[in-house]
Design goal:
By secondary structure, the chain is α+β, with helices and mostly antiparallel strands. The protein has helices at residues 27-31, 53-67, 75-87, 131-136, 163-175, 218-229, 241-245, 277-290; strands spanning 7-10, 13-16, 34-36, 39-44, 47-51, 94-102, 116-123, 138-142, 180-184, 190-192, 197-202, 205-208, 234-236, 249-254, 258-265, 268-269, 301-303. The strands form 2 sheets. Strands 8, 9, 10, 11, 12, 13, 14, 15 and 16 form a 9-stranded mixed sheet that branches. Strands 1, 2, 3, 4, 5, 6, 7 and 17 form an 8-stranded antiparallel sheet that branches. Helix 2 (53-67) crosses helix 3. The mean pLDDT is 97. Bound molecules: 4'-deoxy-4'-aminopyridoxal-5'-phosphate. Pfam families: Aminotran_4.
């Protein structure tokens, strides 16, 4: 990944991909105190466009604020950096990774007098789990790893260190023959996937966990709004794992995962055991939006040129 042509935006400048390096004493590398975003640009009839750019930038700034990291750039500058990262790499579609991290000026937990750096990289990243997963759904398991407690780490922050938990859960799921993990919160209620929000459908009503232990996903917000516009009732509430076993449909949402049907949890088929009709409708509406084919909200797309 580090050895390729292209440009990465680093601290206000586009630098050669191979030269976008940091020192081994980079503070964030040692303690995981940093924040990041996962953003996507799609090929649209008007050209490459970033989906919900402003919302991702807002969340990045909120994450930094929660961790007490002072952003050295304005939101407009970070929006422009993301547009440039796609445009200057001549990408039609892309996954974008903005990250805010501490420099190598000092070590220790006081984290004083450290420079705050910002980088934005963009590269082509096709469907997260392949095309078949999008239509057939994926097999998941309840994780033995609990999602973060709201007072152990900050769940509203998309913080680097939070992802150790995600990676442990995902590795366990993959090693046991599943494609993704379902993490429960410290009280035992369903929280989210390793990098996705979670929804179920039962008797025509859509349910999703409240925003406590799970990330305030931008795809989650999008799907809630779209579902309501289609006339569905959407309820945010505590969900138990056995409620999922007997749901008609289940799916994940996320920038990388998009709208991903779940066909099985803990060896039990969900509903018909493949993508359900409500999931399909929302998935279609989502792809029509992000690709600019039939956008529900055209203003959610920002052209890079
Ligand atoms: N939960 C977690 C833990 C995530 O990492 C992500 C991906 N950012 C999501 C949910 C989904 O968020 P979004 O829809 O904003 O990508």
């Amino acid at each position: 990944m580090s050895d390729r042509d292209g440009l990465i935006w680093l601290d206000g400048e586009l630098v050669d991909w191979r030269e976008a390096k940091v020192h081994v004493l980079t503070h964030t590398l040692h303690y995981g105190m940093g924040v990041f975003e996962g953003v996507r640009a799609y090929e649209t009839p008007q050209g490459a466009a970033i989906f919900r750019l402003q919302e991702h930038t807002d969340r990045l700034f909120n994450s930094a604020k929660i961790l007490g990291m002072k952003m050295p750039f304005s939101k407009d500058e970070i929006n422009e950096a993301q547009r440039a990262a796609v445009r200057e790499n001549n990408l039609n579609s892309a996954y974008l990774r903005p990250m805010v991290f501490f420099g190598s000026e000092g070590m220790g937990l006081r984290a004083e007098n450290l420079k705050v750096h910002v980088m934005v990289a963009a590269w082509e990243w096709p469907a997260y789990m392949g095309e078949e997963a999008k239509t057939q759904g994926i097999k998941i398991r309840t994780s033995s790893f609990t999602r973060h407690h709201v007072n152990i780490t900050m769940c509203k922050a998309k913080a680097n260190g939070n992802y150790i938990n995600s990676m442990l859960a995902l590795r366990e799921a993959i090693d046991s023959g599943c494609e993704e993990a379902l993490l429960l919160d410290p009280e035992g209620y369903v929280a989210e996937g390793s990098g996705e929000n979670f929804f179920i459908v039962r008797d025509g009503v859509i349910y999703t966990p409240e925003l406590t232990a799970c990330l305030d996903g931008i795809t989650r917000r999008t799907i809630i709004e779209m579902a309501k516009s289609l006339g569905y009732e959407v309820r945010e509430k505590r969900i138990t794992r056995d409620e999922v076993y007997i749901a008609d449909e289940a799916f994940f949402t996320g920038t990388a995962a998009e709208v991903l049907p779940i066909r099985m949890l803990d060896g039990r088929a969900i509903g018909i055991g493949s993508r359900g009709p409500v999931t399909e409708k929302l998935q279609t509406m989502y792809f029509d939006q992000v690709t600019g084919k039939a956008p529900y909200k055209p203003e959610w797309l920002t052209l890079v040129k």
